[in-house]
What does this fold into?
Amino acid sequence: MDSIVAEFNRKYGVDTTGSAQIEQIFVGIRHMTILEVPIKPEITTSLNRMRATLERETGKPHKSHSWLPHMEFIGGDRAIHRTVRMLQLFAGAIDNCPLENTLGPANKGMFGRLIDRPSKFSDMDELLMSHILPNWVNMCRHGILGKAKLPRSSELSPLYLQLKSFVDNPRRSVSWSCAFSIHAVLTGVFEVASERQHVSTVSKMVFDNYFNQMQKSLKALNNEKSSIMKKSSAMHNIMMISFLENFGLSAFEESAMWNPLCAGTNLSILDYFGNLEGGCAVIDCQAQLRIVMYLYHGLVINGIVQEGEMPLLEILYKGFKNCKALWQGSLPSRGELVKKFWISFGMGLKESKQMSESARLLAQGGPVSSGGVFAEGLQHCRGRTMKPIEPSEISTAFRRICDRDFSDVVDKYHTPEQRKRSSHTEQYVVAVHTNDTLDHLEEEIQLHSVNFISTACILEQFVCSITRVLQWDSLLETFKHTTNLDMRQGFAIIFAQHLLGALDFAQDPLNYEFRNAPMLTRQAPTLFHGVCGFLDMYFSNVPPTNVLWFQGMEAGDDSNVEIIGSGATRR
It folds into this structure.
């Protein structure tokens, strides 16, 4: 202690009088810190002696946690030190339960009655001690938190980090961060009151719906014999996402896993890590997303298809508009479709321009290469790797939460005067970051509601189906056997050089006749009539229940929500 004060005095040139005052302040802070730290019961004797000493020296009693009565949500009837004491008591039960055993509930009624609509915090003692905590212990030891280390846990599941530490170290003092976490869970239960069961039911239903949709789509894809997605590395990612279903095991009570705070944690893990991060590695695993998006965009900019006619495609189109991996910057105009498509496929700029020029010549009536429809594409495509889709490219909310990137936040809710007064404070920074993240989440909510795994299967089935509709399957089978490359590579060459080429350079793409490539027009010389008809039929008939795992709801009123710790408001 003396060394800390002495070092401070030397650094800042404090004189003798000031040094004595600083030492008194330091001693006071040290005592206050010790007295406020949650500790185990066996240490309270020495603390009581310290309090008695302080009382003799100051002439007035020292009340433990004297700051709590002024805190509305952790003082008074909601006193957080009551939660601390309950956790300290339960830590003993954890310590006495062997690791290989499950922890059962306490004797019924040991902590009072189980009340559905608590009117005060103490009404939840039985719920916490006999239901929530035992289930958490079993989940941390024998459930998903005991079997795996969750990625991005600091960003998406700080609550579970606290629970795991508490369960793994029952002999440690209960930290304030752990106490605040459990207190927040109880506050959530208390605030929803009579709606708790409804909140739990709806949250669990949304969670289960994601996996039901995924299994249904994968089952349908199994019937698609021409797809190689089932044999690709995408299945590893799907299995990883499927592991998250363990949060919904019926072995754990709803009160423990689907109270408001835990439900929000489970759904956040599923949304950001499972659906967005894991889903981005699956949704375009066979180039199915970029093929469909380039086709849709080409039809839109040529006026052949109107935006909004096919709901699922419109959601994907809006959601992936800023995806650099797909578009290489801004959305391509006419004349750029072929070039940008090939760049996104991993081709260099020089080669992509050559492919675009070849497509232009074909669209204007030039002959197909003497080597066949695949010749030039094969020359430049071998060994190329598609640029992967990063979730941060399509979701600013993901970038804020998971990457902790706030480099481009915008404060839309404080006045210039408020910014000048508060911009240097941590509270202001947290408020601005929080509200910017919420704004982006509200803007992106429709994209978040799309089940990326189900959508990947649906897009894959579309590409396989249109291959048969256009009667390209035998041509692609020959390509596969001749080149030892998969059929999707051959599809990409035909798709880019002929379909996108016509959308890029033909004067009338809809009625363009592929007379220079008769092997592509067995169905009809006006190929786009068949393509547009099948596109509309296929995606107009995809039920939203197959791909939307929840429905984003509009706020029911214009109530103001106060920004944390500031005088600004957001609507």
